[in-house]
Amino acid sequence: MFRLIGAAFAVLLLALAGFVGFRTMSFTAPPPPAAVQIADSSAYAIDTAAAAAHLSEAVRFRTVSIGDGLGDPAEFQRFQAWMIERYPAFHAVARREVINNLSLLYTWEGSDPGQPPILLLAHQDVVPVPDDTRAAWQADPFGGDLRDNAVWGRGSIDDKGSLVSLLEAAEYLAKQGRRPVRTIMFAFGHDEELGGAEGATQIAALLAERGQRAWFVLDEGMAAIQNHPLTGGPVSMVGISERGFGTMRVRAVGQPGHSSMPPRETAVSLVSEAVERIHAMPIKQQLEGGPALAMMRALAPQLSTMNRTAIANEWLFGPLLRQRMAGSPPARALLGTTVAPTMISGGVRPNVLPAEATAMINFRIHPRDTADDLLARARASVADLEGVTVEWAEPPRNASAVSSTTSSSYALIAALSREVLPDVPVAPALVLAGTDSRQYEAVAENVYRFQPLLATDEDLAMPHGLNERMKIENLDRMIRFYIGLMEAGAMQ
Ligand SMILES: [Zn+2]
């Protein structure tokens, strides 16, 4: 009898091992929809030194976002006049529209109006350089220095690098008399760093009003990174979605008075309890329902056998996997909504019961969750705490839609990435910050965020940080990528 059970158990184990093995073997990304014809980008006769000089000139315009009285509209106008002068062949063939005074929309009309256009985004504005960080810069942040094989300055990566590369690519093709079959549009907002309310939002509204639908949208937001935490090697990360954002205000009212004979709960104890409960409310952390699973599939060949087995068999190793990833903030951000209590206040004296105490809890919303649902759950978790109310401090923003990784446009971007970054695997990713591109969801089904540059850990800290600089080799890659994109995507 025992022998029989033992044998049955062994058979079961074997079947299980076989199933786990099969899932592990078959865990990979689906093949691209169709072979994409990409030209050999090394054949493009690009004057990289001239392009670097142009980026250097672009950095010298102090196009700091116009908010808090920091930016100057005249500087944006000077920058725009420079574009016209610097890229004459492109400006001779493209229609230029100024939207809401300072944003730009270019239309390079294709010969076939039946093909939906490609929409390429970049932004003109840059974040300020705070006075107390100046001393830590090794170059003038608005000097555009050319040294150490890089163009130095605020905006050299974020996002004048993209803007200049796009214009260089278009100028290169226009100068050769090349004309698109499919229309190519370029939208250069002027307030991305402030949320895009005046720029991208208005351009997107105009396009929607004109009934314009794009084949796809490509913006900044992700890049190829030198050290991917999962593979330890380089990976081209194409952003297919970006997280949402919202801050909950928790308010507790209590009975004011002297603290010598206090009631059981005070406003302070109530708000603390509420923050603790909302912070601890169960948030789904898993691979499904966002870009995480597609990313893992794409990287399957690069994963260690152990990681691959665990990820391919989440049904079995899920708890172990989640436990391992819970210790890593980037992994947690990828797998689910993150909750961070950030402010708490209440009371004026140690011996006085306050009438009110408040706290703020910041949410970064994963594509699988919604702001409405999170608020409902937060409220339910504190429903029995009398005098506690929870609301969004300002209108929250849900995560963007998740763009396809099996579309022809994703295949095009991936093929071009492999052309300028050979041997670097391409994987979809979740954008942890926000970009202008989320405004364009009504204009295109698929919105991708990718700058074809290879970033070291040091480079990743540069946008909005110190000593921002664009390596010339990355500038060269970006221009080749965009020429290839316009050729393969719109000129065949
Ligand atoms: Zn940016």
Structure characterization notes:
37% of the residues lie in helices and 21% in strands. It has 492 residues and is an alpha+beta fold. It folds into two domains: 41-242 and 399-490, Zn peptidases (Aminopeptidase, 3-Layer(aba) Sandwich); 244-392, Alpha-Beta Plaits. α1 (2-26) crosses α9 (305-312), α5 packs across α15 and α13 (408-420) runs antiparallel to α15. The protein is globular. The protein starts with a helix and ends with a helix. The structure holds zinc ion. Zinc ion binds next to loops. Residues 123, 158-159, 192, 220 line the site of zinc ion.
Give the terminus-to-terminus CA distance: 72 Å
Number of domains: 2
Q: Please, what is the average pLDDT? A: 92
The residue ranges in which pLDDT falls below 50 over 5 or more consecutive positions are none
Q: How many separate helices?
A: 15
* CATH architectural name of the largest domain: 3-Layer(aba) Sandwich
Structural class: alpha+beta
Counting copies of identical and different chains, the oligomeric state is: single chain
CATH superfamily of the largest domain: Zn peptidases
Strand percentage lies at: 15-25%
Give me the count of strands.
Answer: 17
- Kindly provide the name of the CATH class of the largest domain: Alpha Beta
